[in-house]
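Re: [ENG-882] Designed sequences occasionally contain unexpected residues at chain ends

Forwarding the minimal case from QA. Structure tokens:
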């Protein structure tokens, strides 16, 4: 079974348990901390996947890193995963937890890419627009790509709306090249 599927199952179990115990938001914050640690520390990623490092040593490292920073529920969950020799899933489990949390709470993630950072007014307008279109609460992620020149690229799930100047220029260039090619015939 792939690590992603295993991570998804562990994340679902943790989410259900946290919800049952009324600790969903605290555990979500723990998962965000775990995800941040994974994303910012390559040595941590390698340690989780390294079969040479013994599981008790990995557990000691996890306790040293997260001890006192996460809830007792998350700490015990990390211990269970380590005892079952599944530390490698800790890399993808926070993202799987977040996906299932968003699904359970009807939250849609959208990514907006612009040439310059958005101000608060535009951020709110995009959030409201996407919320009206999807009927869901929106979690807007922002990216800046100066190569767009202007405009935006909005990605919601599998849908992408590209209203950037870069793409408009590319479409115009393609149209011009097509017409030039046709006129040569």
């Amino acid at each position: 079974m792939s690590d992603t599927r295993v991570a998804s199952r562990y994340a679902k179990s943790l989410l259900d348990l946290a919800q049952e115990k009324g600790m969903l938001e605290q555990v979500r914050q723990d998962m965000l901390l775990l995800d941040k640690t994974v994303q910012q520390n390559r040595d941590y990623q390698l340690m989780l996947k390294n079969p040479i490092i013994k599981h008790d040593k990995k557990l000691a490292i996890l306790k040293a890193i997260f001890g006192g920073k996460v809830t007792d529920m998350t700490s015990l969950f990390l211990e269970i995963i380590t005892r079952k020799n599944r530390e490698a899933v800790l890399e993808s489990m926070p993202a799987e937890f977040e996906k299932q949390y968003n699904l359970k709470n009807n939250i849609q993630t959208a990514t907006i890419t612009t040439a310059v950072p958005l101000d608060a007014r535009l951020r709110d307008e995009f959030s409201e627009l996407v919320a009206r279109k999807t009927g869901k609460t929106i979690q807007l992620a922002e990216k800046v790509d100066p190569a767009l020149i202007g405009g935006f690229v909005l990605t919601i799930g599998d849908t992408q709306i590209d209203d950037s100047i870069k793409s408009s220029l590319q479409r115009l260039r393609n149209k011009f090249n097509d017409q030039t090619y046709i006129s040569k015939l």
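QA comment: On inspection the terminal residues look reasonable. The chain has two domains: 3-102, 107-184. Proposing we downgrade this to a documentation issue.
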